[in-house]
Amino acid sequence: MSNIPADNIIDSMEHLLNIASDSTRLKILYAISGEEKNVGEIVKEIGASQSLISHQLKVLKKAKLVRVRREGRKVFYLLADDHVTSLLKIVEAHVKE
């Protein structure tokens, strides 16, 4: 019996890894890995334009890597769950070997 996942799972994995393979998106994920932040805070930390950060956050949210918390008019972004944190740590450890 093969341990290869079903094609639909492989397709979803491919999509997720493609989303995460962008350097700006990776920086955003790291920026919000320790605490939730709003767009302005992420812009300052990464040094990219607000429009670029907002667009990339939308992509990350759609991929379920980031979630949103609203507080009045403010919107805060944070990692979707511990799986995203683990994914970042595993990939970073692998490339540092």
Describe the fold and architecture.
- With 97 residues, this protein is an alpha+beta fold.
- It has a two-stranded antiparallel ribbon.
- A hairpin with a 2-residue loop joins strand 1 and strand 2.
- The longest helix has 15 residues.
- The radius of gyration is 15 Å and the shape is globular.
Number of strands: 2
Figure out the total of helices.
Answer: 5
Rg result: 15 Å
Write down the overall mean pLDDT. 96
Strand line-up in the sheet with most strands: 1-2
Helix content: 55-70%
Write down the secondary-structure element order: HHHHEEH
Beta-strand percentage range: 5-15%
Overall body shape: globular
Compute the separation of the termini in Å: 32 Å
The largest β sheet comes out as: 2 strands, antiparallel
Helix/strand-derived category reads alpha+beta
Key terms:
alpha+beta, 97 residues, 5 helices, two-stranded antiparallel ribbon
Provide a compact summary of the structure.
This protein is of the alpha+beta class and 97 residues long.
Question: How are the SSEs ordered, and which strands pair?
Answer:
Elements: H1 7-20, H2 23-31, H3 39-46, H4 50-62, E1 66-71, E2 74-79, H5 82-96
Antiparallel strand pairs: 1-2
